[in-house]
């Protein structure tokens, strides 16, 4: 028979109305970075969430003002280090827009191939880690993680062969790309995407037939269409909330208008909807990669001569905003030039920063365990949140 | 509700007496500081710009700060770049958080980096830097090698 003390603890813990403030993070495995959520709890239910970010702030924007247009692209990849290709692309696109630099068609196609392979790699990491967050112990949890990491490795191997680096590439440069495809790369890419395409069905079968998975994803963390727009969410988050907004379609860049692909939209707005959007995006990325390999034009890969000095690229006075559809949504770069070799002002519009801002709006009302499920479905990369 | 760039330009001219410059589907509108919030309300209610993209600032040294805000009407494909000059040595600007919730974190970041004080913001505190940080790093007079106390 339990003593009075035990009973009291139980009552205060569960039945009582006392509020408990709890720090989740800054070091928490499900944050996939350094993020602190200050949760106010009533029992196990979250009533308020205050997001504390900035632990990974490396003053990218100030750095952008001190580095030249030649130097910065390799730093750009460090904002979103999980999808480095797209952040590099955003920066060089902004410089190209500013300087009215033409990009050869072959380079545009190579950029598309790189961006789509990057999306596959990034979504692999997201799926694996998210499944582990919501229950490594559940059937399929840790298994999916290991499978996804294996597939991501295959894509990283391709990038390594293309650029010499596995994570931070320095592939893009103003006017084109730095590297052309090595011999035999084309066939390897095709084999890899074929393999991954076959594996996707396995993941879906493992997850969607799992009652625990659906229970933890369906109806959890619902984002309404209105909230998604008002907060400036983008990528799978906004498309999971019924808004058909994909920059590859809405404002095509880098020859995306020449490819045939679907933009998945789900209306439920919950974690499961975001999962479904990403699973379709995997396949669409694979389709785009195949189309781009089939139609890869011959010609130069850059419209500018090789870089000989760090001050070689100068942009005329003016400003430009270039944006690309990264794995997490709109990655934008706003540049103001005073005519010199460095920007006067550089601003990153990171998809993860805007996307993460949804947490205080949707988490209250959920249980603590759902916090990690929701956070994982948002797929933030803290390098891009904190910049 | 007509939201082609041309129609939007005409309506902005009627309402604010300023000329918007159009580049493809992007309209750029500069208004005096006093009309900032009014322009934001107008953009949302009349031009259907429900999508809040980003907000930031540029430090033009002696000429003071310029606040920029990019919002969109996704259905019509209209992009509105709103901008306002605060004036020399002026750091106060109206907050657009009553119009778009997304401005919350963006304005906090802008305050953190530039020291622009957004009046009407519900919770204006630093977001990326620590609470006890001195100065606002993206100001042009903030040298990158400004010393600061080491973390303990």
Give a quick precis of the structure.
Chain A has 387 residues and is α+β, with helices and mostly antiparallel strands. Chain A is 48% helix and 12% strand. In chain A, the strands form three sheets. Chain A has a three-stranded antiparallel beta sheet with strand order 1-2-3.
What does this molecule look like?
The complex is a heterodimer of chains A (about 375) and B (about 150). Chain A has about 375 residues and is of the alpha+beta class. Chain A has helices spanning about 5-15, 60-65, 75, 85-100, 105-135, 140-165, 185-210, 210-215, 225-230, 235-240, 245-250, 270-295, 350-355, 360, 370-380, 380-385; strands spanning about 20-25, 35-40, 45-50, 170-175, 175, 320-325, 330-335, 345-350. Chain A has 2 domains: about 5-50, no CATH class; about 60-380, Cytochrome-c3 Hydrogenase, chain B. Chain A has a 3-stranded antiparallel sheet. Chain A has a 3-stranded antiparallel sheet with strand order 6-7-8. In chain A, strands 4-5 form a two-stranded antiparallel ribbon. In chain A, helix 5 (about 105-135) runs antiparallel to helix 12 (about 270-295) and helix 7 (about 185-210) packs antiparallel against helix 12. Chain B has helices spanning about 5-15, 35-45, 105-115; strands at about 20-25, 25-30, 50-60, 65-75, 80-85, 90-95, 115-120. In chain B, the strands form 2 sheets. In chain B, strands 1-2-5-4-3 form a 5-stranded mixed sheet. Chain B has 3 helices and 7 strands. The interface between A and B is medium-sized, with 31 and 28 residues.
Strand order of the largest sheet of chain B: 1-2-5-4-3
- The DSSP helix count of chain B reads 3
Q: Class by helix and strand content of chain A?
A: alpha+beta
CA radius of gyration of chain B is 17 Å
Low-confidence stretches of chain B: none
Biggest β-sheet of chain B, characterized? 5 strands, mixed
Secondary structure layout:
The complex is a heterodimer of chains A (about 375) and B (about 150).
Chain A: H1 4-15, E1 19-24, E2 36-42, E3 45-52, H2 60-66, H3 73-76, H4 84-99, H5 105-133, H6 141-163, E4 172-173, E5 176-177, H7 185-208, H8 211-217, H9 225-230, H10 236-239, H11 247-250, H12 271-294, E6 318-325, E7 330-337, E8 343-349, H13 351-356, H14 359-362, H15 368-378, H16 382-386
Antiparallel strand pairs in A: 1-2, 2-3, 4-5, 6-7, 7-8
Helix pairs in contact in A: 4-5, 5-6, 5-12, 5-15, 6-7, 7-12, 12-15
Chain B: H1 5-16, E1 21-23, E2 26-32, H2 36-45, E3 51-59, E4 65-73, E5 78-87, E6 92-94, H3 103-114, E7 117-119
Parallel strand pairs in B: 2-5, 6-7
Antiparallel strand pairs in B: 1-2, 3-4, 4-5
């Amino acid at each position: 028979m339990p003593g009075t003390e035990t009973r009291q603890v139980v009552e205060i813990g569960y039945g009582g109305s006392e509020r408990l403030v709890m720090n989740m993070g800054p070091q928490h495995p499900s944050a996939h970075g350094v993020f602190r959520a200050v949760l106010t709890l009533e029992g196990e239910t979250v009533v308020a969430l205050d997001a504390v970010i900035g632990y990974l702030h490396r003053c990218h924007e100030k750095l952008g003002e001190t580095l030249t247009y030649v130097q910065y692209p390799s730093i750009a990849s460090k904002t979103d280090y999980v999808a480095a290709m797209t952040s590099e692309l955003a920066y060089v696109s902004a410089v190209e827009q500013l300087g009215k630099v033409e990009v050869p068609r072959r380079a545009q196609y190579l950029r598309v191939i790189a961006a789509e392979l990057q999306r596959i790699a990034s979504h692999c990491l997201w799926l694996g880690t998210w499944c582990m967050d919501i229950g490594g112990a559940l059937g399929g949890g840790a298994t999916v993680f290991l499978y996804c990491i294996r597939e991501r490795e295959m894509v990283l191997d391709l990038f390594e062969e293309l650029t010499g680096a596995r994570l931070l590439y320095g592939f893009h440069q103003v006017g084109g790309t730095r590297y052309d495809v090595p011999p035999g790369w084309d066939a390897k890419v095709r084999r890899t995407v074929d393999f991954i395409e076959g594996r996707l069905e396995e993941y879906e079968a493992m997850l969607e037939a799992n009652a625990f998975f659906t229970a933890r994803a369906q109806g959890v963390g619902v984002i309404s269409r209105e909230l998604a727009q008002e907060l400036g969410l983008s990528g799978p988050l906004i498309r999971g909330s019924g808004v058909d907004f994909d920059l590859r379609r809405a404002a095509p860049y880098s020859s995306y208008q020449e490819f045939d692909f679907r933009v998945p939209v789900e209306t439920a707005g919950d974690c499961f909807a975001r999962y479904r959007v990403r699973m379709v995006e995997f396949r669409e990325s694979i389709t785009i990669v195949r189309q781009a390999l089939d139609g890869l034009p011959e010609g130069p890969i850059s419209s500018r001569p090789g870089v000989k000095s760090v001050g070689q690229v100068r942009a005329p006075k003016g400003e430009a905003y270039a944006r690309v559809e990264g794995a997490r949504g709109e990655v934008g770069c706003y540049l103001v030039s005073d005519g010199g070799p460095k920007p006067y002002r550089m601003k990153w519009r990171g998809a993860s920063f805007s996307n993460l801002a949804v947490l205080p709006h949707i988490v209250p009302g959920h249980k603590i365990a759902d916090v990690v499920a929701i956070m994982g479905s948002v797929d933030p990369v803290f390098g891009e949140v904190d910049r | 509700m007509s939201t082609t760039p041309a129609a939007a330009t005409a309506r902005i001219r009627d309402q604010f007496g300023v000329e918007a410059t159009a580049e493809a589907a992007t309209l750029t509108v500069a208004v005096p500081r006093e009309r900032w919030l009014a322009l934001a309300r107008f953009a949302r209610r009349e031009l259907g710009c429900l999508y809040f993209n980003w907000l930031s600032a540029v430090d033009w040294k002696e000429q003071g700060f310029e606040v920029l805000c990019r919002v969109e009407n996704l259905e019509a494909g209209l992009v509105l770049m709103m901008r306002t000059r605060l004036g020399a040595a002026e750091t106060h600007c109206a907050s657009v958080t009553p119009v778009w919730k997304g401005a919350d974190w963006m304005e906090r970041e802008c305050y953190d980096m530039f020291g622009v004080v957004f009046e009407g913001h519900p919770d204006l505190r630093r977001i990326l830097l620590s609470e006890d940080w001195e100065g606002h790093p993206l100001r042009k007079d903030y040298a990158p090698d400004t010393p600061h106390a080491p973390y303990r």
